[in-house]
Structures are given as structure tokens and as C-alpha cells.
Amino acid sequence: EKDGYDWFMRKEIFEQPRAVADALLGRHDGDGLLQLDEVRISEDELREVDKIVIIGCGTANYAGLVAKYAIEHWTRIPCEVELAHEFRYRDPILTRNTLVVAISQSGETADTLMAIRYARQQKARVLAVCNTNGSTIPRESDAVIYTHAGPEIGVASTKGFLTQLIACYLLGLYLAQVRGTKFGDEIAAVVDELAKMPDHVQCLLDSAEQVYELARTYAGTRSVLFLGRHAGFPVALEGALKLKELAYIHAEGFAAGELKHGPIALIEEGLPVFCVMPPRGRDQLHDKMVSAIQEIRARGARTLVLVEEGDEEVTRYADELIRLPVVPTLLQPVVATVPLQLFACELATAMGHDVDQPRNLAKSVTVE
Ligand code: BG6
């Protein structure tokens, strides 16, 4: 059942081109951009939404952080992202015009389930982004977008995450279409870019060996940092989470702009730091990230830079370069996450850990 792979996780990483294609399949037709799988929210109700709150735990929370950048940009609806277990204990402000988006691969995470029950009691509308048909969270939601990744067995989420991103992009575009905040051709242009994602992901997988070789050289390392900006910031968080979960290495993700406000004190000789370069289209962010990389390199860090093809500006400050396909900034997390998954999987393997069943973790946590 592992199809010749050593781990379900590795198999699931390599299934991502297909998973992403399935998540997009049939969602785009002549009349409307998104087919929600089950909907008890009308277009009129969606037009009245004045706030979105995205909840989830772990990797699902990071998918939510990416979604915020896209959904706010495309729809101009204020969007908050919150850990499901923090959400209902802080007396959140919810009305019937609040759309709560609950992201959960399993659909059974108790923290997320309790949060949506609370949200519905407060009359908010709840939309689930979920991978498991008929699971509890979609059953208790007003609408659901299934991510169609297929069963995910490895405890650390991979194809679950990428397809959650796709579902959230589609939701954002659908809301933009229903509310008229983007023209049809603008939406179609993003959909075209999304349609290229399976091929982009496949290209990254085809050069997995480069990342594997790199990972194996870090088997004894004690700490790894991850830096990103904008939509690359949640990618940094997700990269760090994968390393914690699988390799039991101290790993932290930071927004690169925050570096000078504290984390730069951690930089020391030889410390590996992954840096997710924003695409060149984002000039200001791009330049700022180049200076952040210079700063940490000057202090002796080893810079492992994820950067799009053709971007040579950062080359001389990079100890290692991992090339990414050229994609729009908001969609970059779909590609930038993949090398970080490969890195964590291979490093944990090299360290002799059980990648599919990391210590102390469960695939879905059904207690609060
Ligand atoms: C954690 C898993 O317990 O639950 C994570 O270890 C996962 O990998 C998180 O991201 C949320 O799970 P779900 O099923 O709600 O997406």
C-alpha cells in the first residue's frame, strides 16, 4: 500500500500533483467558479458576510494564515485567523454575518469541532474545508469544500495542506466573484495559474534528490530557523512544524521583518536558516528579504534559500539554493512548501525516526 515508498508520508508528498489536480477538478465551470460540496449558505448570505474567521490547528492553522492574504486581497472582507482552541475561550465577536471557515484534514479534531459548535450557537455561518467525507466537522457545518486529497496516513500533513491551500484560494475567488470584487477575467487568470500547480509541484518532486542530499548533511543539527515574508511567512511556520514533528529538532519560523526585533540574537556560526524569497513581482518585499539574508549571513548563519528560477540577486548570499517555479506571490506557498516537506521527511529518515508515527503525536486528536 506504500507503493514502494518507505513511508506513507513520502508517498503522500509524491501524490501531491494528483491531489492538487483533484482539488481543482470540476470546481470551475461556466456559471460559477466554485462548486461547494454541500451548501446551506446562499449567495445572498455570502454577499452579507462582513467578517471571516478562519480556525484550525497545527498545519490547518497555517493554511488559514496563507488564506488570509489571498482572501482579504481578493474580497476586501476582513479576515482573522485563529487557533481553534483559543477561539471560543476569548468571547469572540460573532454575528450572523460572520463566516467561520473551519479547516481540518480529518474533520474530527475536537478543538476545531468545539469551536464550530460554539460559532453556530452564536449564529455565525460555518464553512468547513475538509478532506474526510462525512466526518463530523463537515456534517455540523453549513457548507463544505472537500479537498479531495485522498486518505492521508502519515501523521504529518502534506497533501492535506496543499489541498487546503487550493480549497481556500477557490473559496476566496468564489467570494470575489459573488461579491463582484474582482472581474471575471482577473479570476480566470488566477484559476489559470492554479491549473499549472500540479506541473510545478511535479517539477519540484523531480529534483527531490538535491533536497535529500542536503537534508542528510543536517542529521546532527540542534536547531533550524525558517524565515519568510507575506505568504512566505506561514510557509516558514509550516517548514518548522514539519521538522519539530518528524525530526524532533528545535525549529522556529519567523516573519523576516521580525528578525531585528529579537530573533537575530539567535543567529550564530553555522546555524541553518531556511529563507523563503518572495517572487520578484513584490519589489519591496523582495529587497527587504535580500537584506535580511545578508544580515544573517554576515553573522555566520548557513543560508538555505528558496528562490524562484531566474532570480539571481540573492545567489551570492546563499549557501544553498533551492529553485522554485515562477508563480504569483499569493500562490507561492503551494510550491515553496514542497522542498521543506522533502527536507523534513529525509532528515527524520536519516536520523532513524519513525516518520509516519512520530512520538507523542496522533493523526487526529479527538479530545480537547
Ligand atoms: C494534529 C496533527 O494533531 O492535528 C497535525 O498532528 C494536524 O498534523 C492537526 O495538522 C490538525 O488536524 P486536522 O485533522 O484537524 O487537520
From TrEMBL:
Any Gene Ontology biological process: protein N-linked glycosylation
Which residues belong to any copy of the SIS domain?
A: 42-181, 214-358
What is the catalytic activity of this protein? D-fructose 6-phosphate + L-glutamine = D-glucosamine 6-phosphate + L-glutamate
Q: Which UniProt keywords apply?
A: Aminotransferase, Cytoplasm, Glutamine amidotransferase, Repeat, Transferase
Subcellular location, record wording: Cytoplasm
Q: Which GO terms describe its cellular component?
A: cytosol
Enzyme Commission code(s) on record? 2.6.1.16
What is this enzyme's class at the first EC digit?
Answer: transferase
Can you tell me which residues form the catalytic site? K363 (for fru-6p isomerization activity)
**What are the protein's GO molecular function terms?**
carbohydrate derivative binding; glutamine-fructose-6-phosphate transaminase (isomerizing) activity
The protein's superkingdom reads: Bacteria
Q: What does this protein do?
A: Catalyzes the first step in hexosamine metabolism, converting fructose-6P into glucosamine-6P using glutamine as a nitrogen source.
Relate the assembly described in the record: Homodimer.
| Protein known as | Glutamine--fructose-6-phosphate aminotransferase [isomerizing]
- Organism, scientific name: Nocardioides aurantiacus
Q: Which residues of the full protein are shown?
A: 251 to 618 of 618
